[in-house]
Structure formats: structure tokens, C-alpha cells
Amino acid sequence: MLTLFDPHHSLAAYLIFIASYVVFAIGRFPGTHIDRPAAAVIGAAMMFAFGVLGPEQGLHSIDYATIVLLFAMMVVVAGLHLAGFFEWVTDLFIAHVGPRWLLPVVIFTSGILSAFLVNDIVCLLLAPLVIEVSRQLSRRATPYLLALATASNIGSTATITGNPQNILIGSVSRISYVNFVAHLGPVAVAGLFLDWAILYFLYFRSEPAAIAAPTEPIFTRPESHLVFPGLVTLAVLAGFLAGVSPALVAAVGAAALLMHPRYPSKFVYEEVDWSLLVFFAGLFLIVGGARESGIARQLLSTAEHLNLHNRWIFTGVVVLLSNLVSNVPAVMLLKDLLPNFADPLHFWLLLAMTSTLAGNLTITGSVANIIVIEKAREESPISFWEYLKAGIPVTAASIVVGVIWLSYF
Predict the structure, then answer these.
(1) HSE, side-chain direction, 13 A CA sphere, residue 250
(2) In 3-state terms, what secondary structure has residue 28?
(3) For 62, which of 34, 88, 284, 351 could close a Cys bridge (C-beta 3.0–4.6 Å)?
(4) What's the gap between Cα 218 and its chain centre?
(5) pTM tops 0.85
(6) What is the pLDDT of residues 321-351, one digit of tens each?
(7) 3-state helix, strand and coil shares in percent for the chain, rounded to the nearest 5
């Protein structure tokens, strides 16, 4: 068993921890096919191989409620996707809203859906639809794709189930779903309006005189197919708001969906992002090894010297880490520090908000951004600098508003 005075195990833990986070920062180990999920698995295995973690410590390092909630929400969203829900929503808005209002339609649709469903999955499903609608309207897809990526991050700030890092924070901090929404919901709403204003200023100050109308519907299935997954989703959301354990409610909803004959498990599982689940499990074990080896204590000592108890300094560090190693590893790194703060509730909410909104700064700031950019590569490629032109003002404005809201209102 590792102790804080075992120099060989501590050195191994440091090397594994640093090597893993280097890959998280650059996205792939140079000259290999090792990406972030693979690095998490390798790092976790090395923690066991070098004796940093034992079987019992490994079991206690994983927050199973987070894994269950993330998986169950993926299953629920898979049911909505297989039923054609996202295509139906797209057609509904386009049919009842003028084409000139496509920008706010994309922003508020993706933002609202991302608030209650995992934003990475929302981006995965909506990106092709946004491209298709842009084509039908004879519009350049880039501003709408930027709207999708930024708004999905902003909207997901509102709830525990909005994104992977919020799922983790909700599970570890034990903040209730309603309390989380009450504090961060207004930040998300304000952020969506700021996103609309900034993207409009950048891309739509001079509107074309005539805009083509959409020619053919995207949703072609019977609307009755939407009833069962829609009811399951509403029941899950009602359970969240009623204060029932989010992991339990989501798991029951996922089980109900899998029992329906229209949703065979084979097709549902194809919609699940298994690499993200593996990434989470590996991260838990790497951070568990860091805790067992004393790295976490040294991080706490460093935090005291950096004065992370100052909300603005803390915000700056979270923004930097979220864009250096991505937001989920950043939250994993900081989560053991917050219980020692004077006002842990405030800093849990600040961590959730900042790590999420910081994802809008660069393409690599969040998985949602990468998904949108990859989906758009063939049809409407977005360069790093074009993204940054929108990412900097959207991130800065939304984070400043969010910090002020949490601090004074």
C-alpha cells in the first residue's frame, strides 16, 4: 500500500499524472494514436501497475453515480434521436419562425436542449441539421455552426445534466438539481442573449434583402414515434426537479426506454459515447492515484499560495486549465480543493459555470466545439482563428456576467 513517504511510488504517480495531463492538453501523444480516452486508460493502468493504487483504493476512486448518470442520459437522448426528435424540433422552428430569425432559433434551441440533455450529444445530432437548413436557406453555415457550439456550452451551464463536468460536480458536491438551476439558470439565459448579440454583430449587421425559404422537411417519420421517448424524458426531468437522485431517475428512464420494442439495445448502444465513459473512469483512477500519492495535498498547498479563494483569480485559473487540458480534466484536478474553501457552495457553482463557459474560448476548449468543427469540416470548415474571433468576446462577456451574478445577486 502506498504511503506519502514512499519515494518510488510517489515519483511514479507524478510521472503518470503529468504524462496523462500532457496528452489531455495536446489531444494526442506525439507520433502515436494515443488520444485522451486512451491516455486515461493507460494512466489508470499504470497507477495499478506501479502500486500507486490497490484494488480497494481503485474502487473507492470512481464516482459511480457520475458514470451511471452520464450513461443513462446518453441512452435517453439516443431514444429521442432514434425517434427523430431533433429533426422534428428543427422543422417545427423553421416552419413557424422566419428565416431571418435562424440565428436566435439555433442559439436558443441548442441552448435549451443542452440545458437538460448532455451538450456534446446535442451538438453531435444538431450539427448536420444546422448544415442542412443553412443549405436550404442558401446561407453560409459558419455563423450558425458557431452559434450551435457556443450556445450549447452556454445553455449547458444551467443544470447538472447539461454537460459531463456539471454531472461530475453535481455528484461530488451534492448540490440539488433545483438549487443548481436557481443559481446558474439566469447566467445561462443572459449568456444566450449575449451570444446572439455578439454573433449578430460579427456576421449579420448587413442582412441580405431576400432569403430563400426551406424547400423540404427533414422530419419524415410519424409523430407518434415521439410520444414514448418524449414522456420518458419529461418523467426524468420531473424526477430531477422533485429532488430524486439524478443518477437513479436517469437510470430508471434509460431502463424504461430499453424495454420498448421500438428501441432495440443494439441501436441504442450505437448512440452511446463509450469513449467518454472510458475517459471518465480512467480520469477518476488517475486522480485517485494523485490523491493517494499526496499530489492532491501539494496542489492544495499551491492553491493557498495562489490565493484561489479570490473568485477572480480562481476564475482565471479555471479558464486557463479548461483550455489547457480541457474542462473535464480541469474539474477533476480542482474538485478535491473546494471542500476546504470557506464557501464551498459558491466555488462549486463558480467552477461549474467557469469551466463550462471557458469551453467557448477556443476550438479545443470543449468536446462540443470539436464535434461541431469535425462535422462541418467538409461542408463549411471553420479555422482556429475564425472560431477565436467569436470565442474571445462570447467567453469574456458571459464569464464576467456570471461571476458578477454569483457574487452579488
Answers:
(1) 25
(2) strand
(3) 284
(4) 27
(5) no
(6) 888 777 887 888 788 788 878 888 999 999 9
(7) 75, 0, 25
